[in-house]
Amino acid sequence: MEQNNLYLLLEELKHHIDKLAEHICFKWVISAIGIALTMLFGNATAPMQAFLVLIAADYITGIIKAAKQGRLSSFLSRRGWGKLTTYTIVISLGHLISQIGVVGMRDFILLWAGATEAISIVENCDELGIYIPSFIRDRLLQTKINLAGDGLKHSIEEQLILHEGLRLKPYICPAGKLTIGIGRNLDDKGITEAEAFFMLKNDINDVVDALSQYEWFYRRDSVRQKVIIDMAFNLGIAGFFKFKKMIAALERQNYEKAADEMVDSRWYKQVGERGKRLENMIRSGDDY
């Protein structure tokens, strides 16, 4: 009986809503609201739609988290108005600036606001015990640190340098681990492939900078330049400059003599196939 009464009540409510929706005044009101929102915030493009989804998800997960922690009333009073007011003002200003010629300002602000909401969603889900992939959590945490950095007296980088120190050569830390830089544990972590290539590029640039002032280097073809860079990289600049007879032969463009001087060295015997490959490149001028 109660279910029938509830059903009839819902049907009557739906009937009144349908009649209201058909009323001309209601349509005018909805149209006026739509025009006002478009004037304030611009069209509901993909960035705006994505932001609205994110802010809805943030509030839903925030309410669930607050209810679980017994802080629902304080959450609603704290988050209900302040954050929405800030977004309303900033996004409407962004739209206004876009209208007067700075194209994309509103979407840029939506991107910033969306990133803030995404961070908040991940934090809410994390506290609710919902699994978040580590790469997403780590990226968003770094974004949060970057977004908050301007308001801090000292950045996280400055804080870690204070505590870890900055050492440009390997050393043994108090825990007995081979360490370098700002607390990088070489024994356990080592370096990544990207870091290795970054250092390689820097080291090559250092070698080239040291060699570029010499005519016997910068006037040679690219293959023989590669050989010189390779040897200087391996021996160090000071070590390579000990090959005085080879350098003199390079100045005269006597590549057979330069190759002979390479072969007639202790270094050539130490490096094995590397030496033979570089010797052939110097003699022929062909890449390996």
What is the makeup of the main sheet? Answer: 3 strands, antiparallel
Write out the strand line-up for the largest beta sheet, numbering strands in chain order: 1-2-3
- As a percent range, the share of strand residues is under 5%
* CA-CA gap between termini: 91 Å
Instruction: List the uncertain runs.
Output: none
Helix content: over 70%
Q: Briefly note the structural class of the backbone.
A: mainly alpha
What is the number of strand segments?
Answer: 3
**Overall 3D shape:** elongated
Q: What integer value in Å does the Rg equal?
A: 34 Å
Q: How would you spell out the order of helices and strands?
A: HHHHHHHHEEEHHHHHHHH
Count the helices. How many? 16
Mean pLDDT, nearest integer? Answer: 80
Outline:
With 288 residues, the chain is mostly helical. It is 74% helix and 4% strand.
Q: What does this protein structure show overall?
A:
This protein is mainly alpha-helical and 288 residues long. Among the domains are: 42-151, no CATH class; 194-284, Orthogonal Bundle (Lysozyme). 74% of the residues lie in helices and 4% in strands. The chain is built from 16 helices and three strands. It has helices at 2-22, 24-41, 46-69, 72-79, 82-99, 105-127, 134-148, 156-164, 193-211, 215-218, 222-235, 237-240, 244-251, 255-263, 266-271, 273-284, and strands at residues 167-172, 178-181, 184-185. It has a three-stranded antiparallel sheet, with no helix packed on it. A hairpin with a 5-residue loop joins strand 1 and strand 2 (178-181). Helix 5 packs antiparallel against helix 6 (105-127) and helix 6 (105-127) crosses helix 7. The model has no long low-confidence stretch (mean pLDDT 80).
